[in-house]
Amino acid sequence: MDTAAVTMTVVTALLTGSAAVFYLIGHEYPKTQADMKGIPRRFVRVLGLLLAAGTAGLLAGLAVPWLGRLAAAGLILYFVGAIVAHLRVGSRNVIGAVVFLAASVTTLALSLG
User: How far apart are CA 42 and CA 65, in angstroms?
Assistant: First the structure.
C-alpha cells in the first residue's frame, strides 16, 4: 500500500471514528439529525456501531487490504444512504455526508490502485 493510500485511510478513519464516537456517546447532534430525517432515535446507536465497524475495518485494512476495501465500500453505502435520507425529507444540508462519502470513495480508489 502506498503512502497516499495509507494517509487517506487514516484520514477517513479519523473522520468516521469521530462521527462514531458522537453517535455512541449520545451527543445531541445525531439525535436531532435522526429526528429531522424521521429515523427513530433507537437507531442512532446502530448507526454509530456501523460507523465504528467501518472505522475498524479501514484500520484493519492496513494489514489485510481486502478487509479495508470492504469497509470502504460499506462506508460508501452508508453515506449514500445518509444523502438519500437528507434529500428524502427535503434537506439540502448534505455537505457533511458528501465530504465523508468523498473520503470513503477516495480511500477505496487508492486501495485498489
Answer: 33
Give the single-character DSSP code of 27: -
Q: How far apart are CA 55 and CA 50, in angstroms?
A: 9
Query: Are the CB atoms for 39 and 85 separated by under 8 Å?
Result: yes
Using CA of residue 18, residue 3, residue 57, residue 63, what is the dihedral sign? negative
Give the pTM. Answer: 0.94
**What percentage of the chain reaches a pLDDT higher than 70?**
100
Q: How many CB atoms lie within 10 A of CB 113?
A: 9
Q: In this structure, what C-alpha cell is assigned to residue 84?
A: 438519500
Distances (CA, A) of 91 to 36, 41, 62, 75, 94: 9, 18, 36, 21, 7
36-84 pLDDT, tens digit each? 999 999 999 999 999 999 999 999 999 999 999 999 999 999 999 999 9
Contact 106, 8 (CB under 8 A): yes
